[in-house]
Amino acid sequence: MDRRKALKRTGLLAGATVLTPTLFSLFQACKEEKRVDWQPEFLTQNEAVTISSLLDTILPRTQTPGALDVKADMFIDKVIAHTYDEEGQKAMRADILAFNQQSTKAYGSNFADLNDDNKMAFLKEQEANSGKFNPGIWGTSVGDQQPIGFYRSMKSMAIWAYTTSQEIGENVLSYDPVPGVYEPCKPLSEVGNKWSL
């Protein structure tokens, strides 16, 4: 698999609207692990620190939980370990290494070791120099997708892991479980308009 295909696969994963049972089990596995005991399945410790620091900078804790609070970094590690082929995994390692080399060249240190101001400045540069995802229809890119680069690919995965976590899905985003609660004796005045689905 070449890098372009690996990035395209990452984009498709980010746009997925239905979790397969395998990915659901990965979410459950992340939920049960404690952060202090986390041993990455694919990433080295240094790579894991880089990914965790990147996710914490993109989605920090504010009034809502941050990416590390919902263990998005652990989930991404599991996705890479279980869904990337050998070439895709090698490309990911090379991309993390190149990301840290760029950080060191620009600010004198690996990304995780930068202060907050330098992290933000570096990510603004990455944002400006990264390709963008083409618009898509039902998860399929419209037009010829240009390479998006490591930063935007990881940002997309971070947002996907964050918004599909149980904590964010149930307690931050609007949550309407399907099929929902059965209410046999609800007054018609409380039902409102007829539902389209």
Overview of this protein structure:
By secondary structure, the protein is mostly helical. Helix content is 56%, strand content 2%. The chain is built from 9 helices and 2 strands, in the order ααααααββααα. It has helices at residues 3-14, 21-32, 45-58, 72-83, 86-107, 116-129, 149-163, 166-171, 188-191; strands at 136-137, 140-141. It has a two-stranded antiparallel sheet with strand order 1-2. Strand 1 and strand 2 form a beta hairpin. The protein starts with a helix and ends in a 6-residue tail after the last helix.
- The oligomeric state is single chain
**Major β-sheet profile:** 2 strands, antiparallel
Broad structural category: mainly alpha
Number of beta-strand segments: 2
Q: Order of helices and strands, N to C?
A: HHHHHHEEHHH
The whole-number mean of residue pLDDT values reads 82
Sequence of strands across the biggest β-sheet:
1-2
Q: Total number of helical segments?
A: 9
Uncertain segments are 32-36
Give the termini distance in whole angstroms.
Answer: 41 Å
Helix content: 55-70%
| Mass-distribution shape | elongated
Rg from alpha-carbon coordinates: 19 Å
SSE blueprint and pairings:
Elements: H1 3-14, H2 21-32, H3 45-58, H4 72-83, H5 86-107, H6 116-129, E1 136-137, E2 140-141, H7 149-163, H8 166-171, H9 188-191
Antiparallel strand pairs: 1-2
Helix pairs in contact: 1-7, 2-4, 3-4, 4-7
